[in-house]
Each structure stands twice: as structure tokens, then as C-alpha cells.
Amino acid sequence: MNVTYQNIESNSAVELFNAFELKEINIKSINMCNTDDAVTNKVSLYLSKIKHPSEGTLDIYGRENTTETTTTYYLIKDVSIPAGTTLQLDSSDICIDYTSNDCKLSFQSSNAAGKIDLIIKTTSAAGGSGTTQNNY
Predict the structure, then answer these.
(1) Under a CB-based contact definition with an 8 Å cutoff, are residues 82 and 15 in contact?
(2) Using 50, 70 and 90 to split pLDDT, how confident is the model at 135?
(3) Residue 113 CA from chain centroid, whole number
């Protein structure tokens, strides 16, 4: 089992796993702890899926279409976590196609200071055990 630790310290979106990393792991659980002493924090966890244009497709002007589009799929959106409280999602809450080549998993906090600690437990896609990764 691998464990990733991450302190979120802003309200900017944070990429947790890119498409390559998502193919190599299975997420078992994600703990999100609001470390603020007084403020309820809203959090979002989402997949961004990139759609590449089909070869040979044309745009409305007859030129080859090379525009990539991104679609967002929320696992949770603006979920309130009271001060000093932890929200835990387990594998039954996390619906991800781990075989996709074009999704990334991101997290965002509503608090300008972030004030969220993440602990993410994963296993390798092959089911083996791995090492602990600390991202703090």
C-alpha cells in the first residue's frame, strides 16, 4: 500500500495524479481534513478528461480541427467540511476508469489559505505493494 500526504495551502486547483499515474495505481481511500480552527471549507475532487480531435475532422471553416477540449467530472463538488473535521472517501466512492489515457485527478479547496490535509492510500495497478510517497 502506498500513502501520499499533501498539505493544501491555497484555493488553487491541485493536480493529484496525472493520466500516467492513474494507470499505475488504484485509489483505496482519500482523507480530507479541514485543519482550520474556525472556518468551514468547501472541497471539490474531480477528473479532467481531455478529448483529442479525431484525425481528419474539419472545423466550421474547413480547416483540420486540432482543438482539444477538456470536460470535468466531479466526484464531489463544493462539499462542506466543518472546521477540524475529516471527510473520508473509500474505493466505493471513487469511480475512476484507471485504464484511460486522458484523465487527471485534481482537488480544490474554497479557503484562500487551503487548510486541507490530504492522505491518499493507493495500491499499484498490478496489486503489488509499494513505498510511501510524501508530498509535503
Answers:
(1) no
(2) very low
(3) 19
Model pTM above 0.70: yes
Mean pLDDT, to the nearest integer, of 123-129? 66
Residue pair 1/129 in contact (Cβ under 8 Å)? The answer is yes
Contact between 12 and 126 (Cβ < 8 Å): no
Rounded to 5°, angle at Cα 24 from 44 and 106: 15
Using CA atoms, how far apart are residues 52 and 129, in angstroms rounded to an integer? 34
Taking residues 41-61, report their average pLDDT: 81
Residues 40/9, Cβ–Cβ less than 8 Å: no
Q: What is the pLDDT of residue 118?
A: 97
Contact, 131 vs 3, CB < 8 A? no
Cell 487548510 locates to 115
- Beta-carbon contacts of residue 127 (< 8 Å; ≥ 6 apart): none
Mean pLDDT of 47-65: 75
| Residue-range domain boundaries for the chain | 2-124
Which CATH architecture does the domain made up of 2-124 adopt? Sandwich (2.60)
Q: Are 87 and 81 in contact (CB under 8 A)?
A: yes
